[in-house]
Write a structure and sequence with these properties.
387 residues, alpha+beta, 10-stranded mixed sheet, 12 strands, 35% helix, acyltransferase activity, Thiolase
Length: 387
């Protein structure tokens, strides 16, 4: 098996709902990371890129029709670059990279762009789901929304609102410290928006609220339950945003042929299924599973990205890992997470891996692990090693 390596990784800024990208078509937003990779690396897409794999969680309306194929067409990459859209819900962008890594490792391809897009303003979350068959209830007693699952996780692990709000505020503060320190500059591709003659450049995430305090969050109404009967609200949940991200995955040989210096090697991947009712516990067995497939231990991992879909998801993961909680949190989401910068569903997985490889390169760390919870009860994980 060959090594699959990440040559470069980039994302757009994440626009707030009804924010800077409200007037940008999802296909145009999806094309932006492709154009950024082309500019940064100087390749001829038609001679170099053998496939584009894009995650998208609501592939309907303006995001329908296979946005994985439409994005390279909109980017001007010509007829010869194929593309495919996939949907593993919140893990879609990460799954795109994992699939690309498998294709590279087996020798089926030499260079693939993998990533994702989600324009949650123009194509609302859940708009592609019309419901489930009654047969589902022959196997499961109930169908719950993810917010209720986050509440049940908080109950099961005994998290109170203050603990989760502390984590949320820390995420916001970490994002601000990283942004002010310029740590995102190498991974974000600015996007020009607006009509001709009235354009402006968007180069900053719009969702973060770094001034948030635990007292501020304490005044927010609950999002999924009645007051006094829950802990989850907008401030300790991921933000609804618009964004796209993409990673160039190649063989080590292809990178050498093009004169590229890879950022990281994709060491191992994992995907698991869990109870679709609590549904969001997937990062726990996914992390255990991907570590078991390698000789990497949790103590060997320098940096973790654990998607902050809800604060209770990350808190449960921290509790269940075989490492001291405080030490683990110091290595996790060090530049802030989705509670701060937002969670553009289909793009988040590739954006987290983008964060991970850039931060490993900046700090000189060796090993990183990214993991995500997924709707209807799944988990996904990827281990990378800096080159």
């Amino acid at each position: 098996m060959r090594d699959a390596v990440i040559v470069d990784a980039v994302r757009t800024p994440f626009g707030a709902r009804d924010g800077a990208f409200a007037g940008v078509h999802p296909q145009d937003l999806a094309a932006e990371p492709l154009l950024a990779l082309e500019e940064r690396l100087g390749f001829d897409p038609q001679r170099t890129i053998e496939d584009v794999i894009y995650g998208c969680v609501s592939p309907i309306d303006e995001q329908g029709g296979n946005v994985g194929r439409l994005a390279p067409l909109v980017a001007g990459w010509g007829d010869d670059v194929p593309g495919v859209q996939l949907n593993r819900m919140c893990g879609s962008g990460q799954q795109a990279i994992n699939f690309a890594a498998g294709a590279i490792a087996t020798g089926a391809h030499d260079a693939i762009v993998a990533g994702g897009v989600e324009h949650m303003t123009r194509v609302p979350m859940g708009s592609d789901l019309g419901g489930v068959t009654e047969t589902y209830f022959e196997h499961y007693d109930e169908l719950v929304q993810q917010g209720e699952s986050a509440e049940r996780i908080a109950e099961q692990w005994g998290f109170d609102r203050r603990e989760l709000d502390d984590l949320a505020v820390d995420s916001q503060r970490r994002w601000k410290a990283a942004w002010d320190d310029g740590r995102y500059e190498s991974q974000i591709a600015p996007v020009r928006v607006g009509a001709e003659g009235e354009t402006r450049v968007v180069d900053t995430d719009e969702h973060p609220r770094p001034e948030s305090t635990v007292e501020d969050l304490g005044s927010l109404p609950l999002a999924f339950r009645q007051e006094g009967d829950g802990v989850i609200h907008a401030g300790n949940s991921s933000g609804i945003v618009d964004g796209a991200s993409a990673v160039l995955v190649t063989s080590r040989e292809a990178a050498e042929e093009h004169g590229w210096e890879p950022m990281a090697r994709i060491v191992q991947t994992e995907v698991v299924g869990v109870d679709p009712v609590t549904m969001l516990t997937g990062p726990i067995p996914a992390t255990d599973g991907v570590l078991e497939k390698t000789d990497v231990t949790i103590d060997d991992v320098d940096l973790f990205e654990v998607n902050e879909a809800f604060a209770s998801v990350v808190a449960a993961w921290l509790d269940e890992m075989d490492a001291p909680r405080e030490d683990l949190w110091e290595r996790t989401n060090v530049n802030g997470g989705a509670i701060a910068h937002g969670h553009p569903l289909g793009a988040t997985g590739s954006a987290l891996l983008t964060k991970l490889v850039h931060e490993l390169e900046r700090t000189g760390g060796d090993v990183g692990l990214s993991t995500m919870c997924i709707g209807f009860g799944q988990g996904i994980a990827t281990i990378v090693e800096r080159i």
